Amino acid sequence: MQTTINHHWQRFTLKQKLARYSVYLVLVVALVQSMQTVEVIPEFFFDAPEQMADMFGRMWPMEWSYYPLSVHDAIVETLNIATIGTLLTLIIAIPLALMNASNITHSAWGHWIARFFLVSSRSVNSLVWALLFVSIFGPGVIAGVLAIAFRSVGFVGKLLAEALEEVDMGAVEAIRATGASPTSILIKGYWPQVLPAFFSIILFRWDINVRESAVLGLVGAGGIGVVLNDSMNLFQWQRVSVALLAIFVVVILAEILVVNIRKKLI
Amino acid sequence: MHTTAGSAEPHTLLSIRGLQKEYVAGNAILKGIDIDIKEQGIIAIIGPSGTGKSTLLRCINRLIDPTKGHILLEQEDLSQARGKQLRMLRRKIGMVFQEYNLVERLTVIENVLTGRLGYMSAWNAWRRNFSQEDINTAFELLEAVGLAEHAKKRADSLSGGQRQRVGIARAVMQNPRVLLADEPTSSLDPKTAVEIMELLERFALEKNMPALVNIHDVNLARRYAKRMIGMSNGVVVYDGPPEGITDDHLKQIYGGESWLV
């Protein structure tokens, strides 16, 4: 007599199935709820393509003569804000990175202090930093530079600390064994090993900062954003398009530059 | 055993007294080591893995802090030294590592020159302001280890044996009074291992200094060592000439006997 044994198998138990379906239900309810809360006005929503076409129409033809008049200086200012801001970042971020790297600083207090500054730098958006500095220093480049620097410290400091922690400690140990001072150990043991990561991080951050500093002008912190904001407020769309194109070109050029330098370095 | 319990004689170069190390309190890795060293040449330290050979060498130049005991180098107590005094003492102790521990992204010659870091300020180290004399010595040492033509290559482009030669040149560059070598041949093939041992012996004799070498390979140790120190479970169980080591000693050091063929 032949009997087949029917094995019973199911991916999920009944309890798990119920749990999964209730999660789906919650998601659908949340979606419906939020649709109601944002109050999308259908007329405005379906109107969007027309409005957009209208705006592009007003942007064209671009007012090229506005570039030498105002956009050029603002773009240079934006690049200056990004570059000086990044350099200022280094001055603050390097000591914090050294303090945060567990294979360099052994004190728990040091770690907590470094982490405090790094996390607070990162948790505030650069626009918010800019608002803060505009209210302290008034509108202008200084506010922009400081906003960029304060926002970047957390990013650069954290990544640099991680690069330092990944260093081959054997080489560091060997240099310590020669009787080198702590500073010399940093210079000859750690520095050559983190050098590629260091430049990579800095260039990457500079690239981000070029984009961020283009926006900072919206809150009055100098750069191309100011020009953009003014033109928009005055409905001079043909100027807006020049400013937008200038930002686009600069961002692309910055990207190309960074990629090429990184290729050479690593 | 020829260790003496009495005080170190005035001409003893390196004297280790009652050295103990516990990584975890109550669990000693080194349980009271006494060694006196005055002779030049290779002194092989043999013993199974985990018996504290590396810890012993690292205690001597204080890469690891001993828990108890004293280490006297030319009558100066290393175990108590701190800061600048410790760095001055470390200059007198050259160290060679199993994994070579070169700074891979620096050139070969610069790796050799890092042996002088204990003698120069951080500012000069940053500026790469090595003295002409140091640069000459570094090139002579590279010549001596047979790597003169590789001086300007990056260290990570060399083979294992070549890297270890650079490691030895770096250690000798310190103009040390003692060489420490922690398993210098364990990552190398047998032929290269012999060459490295020969090189260590040559420098030890030329510079008139002892070279303490941790080594797994008992036969290689016998071949080059003037004196052998057998360790087992954190204590010295044999200290004497290589001829004096018997199978009984080896059984005591490594345990078991199936490997003694």
Describe this structure in words.
Chain A has 266 residues and is mainly alpha-helical. Chain A is built from 10 helices and no strands. In chain A, helix 2 (42-59) crosses helix 10 and helix 4 crosses helix 6 (141-165). The radius of gyration of chain A is 27 Å and the shape is flat. With 261 residues, chain B is an alpha/beta fold. Helix content of chain B is 34%, strand content 24%. Chain B is built from 9 helices and 10 strands. A 6-stranded mixed beta sheet of chain B has the order 6-7-8-3-9-10, sandwiched between helices. A 4-stranded antiparallel beta sheet of chain B has the order 2-1-4-5, with helices on one face. In chain B, helix 5 packs across helix 6. Chain A binds chain B through residues 168, 170-171, 173-181, 183-184, 187-189, 192-193, 195-196, and chain B through 61, 63, 87-91, 93-95, 97, 99-106, 114-122, 125-126, 167, 170, 174. Chain A: Its main location: membrane. Chain A: Residues 75-258 form the ABC transmembrane type-1 domain. Chain A: It is found in: Cell membrane.
Describe how the helices and strands are arranged:
The complex is a heterodimer of chains A (266) and B (261).
Chain A (H helix, E strand, L loop, with lengths): L13 H25 L3 H18 L6 H35 L7 H16 L2 H12 L3 H25 L3 H9 L4 H35 L7 H10 L3 H29 L1
Helix pairs in contact in A: 2-10, 3-4, 3-6, 3-8, 3-9, 3-10, 4-6, 5-6, 6-8, 7-8, 8-10, 9-10
Chain B lengths: L13 E11 L2 E11 L3 E6 L6 H8 L7 E6 L2 E2 L5 H9 L1 E4 L11 H6 L8 H6 L4 H13 L15 H14 L4 E5 L7 H17 L3 E5 L3 H7 L2 E6 L2 E6 L6 H8 L7
Parallel strand pairs in B: 3-8, 3-9, 6-7, 7-8
Antiparallel strand pairs in B: 1-2, 1-4, 4-5, 9-10
Subcellular location (chain A): Cell membrane
Pfam families (chain A): BPD_transp_1 (PF00528)
Membrane topology (chain A): Multi-pass membrane protein
> Any idea what the radius of gyration of chain B is?
18 Å
| Percent in strands of chain A | under 5%
Mean pLDDT across residues of chain A: 91
The tally of domains of chain B stands at 1
Shape of chain A: flat
Rounded to an integer in angstroms, the radius of gyration calculated over CA atoms of chain A is 27 Å
CATH topology of chain B: Rossmann fold
Membrane topology (chain A): Multi-pass membrane protein
Domain ABC transmembrane type-1 (chain A): 75-258
Organism (chain A): Marinomonas arenicola
Keywords (chain A): Cell membrane, Membrane, Transmembrane, Transmembrane helix, Transport
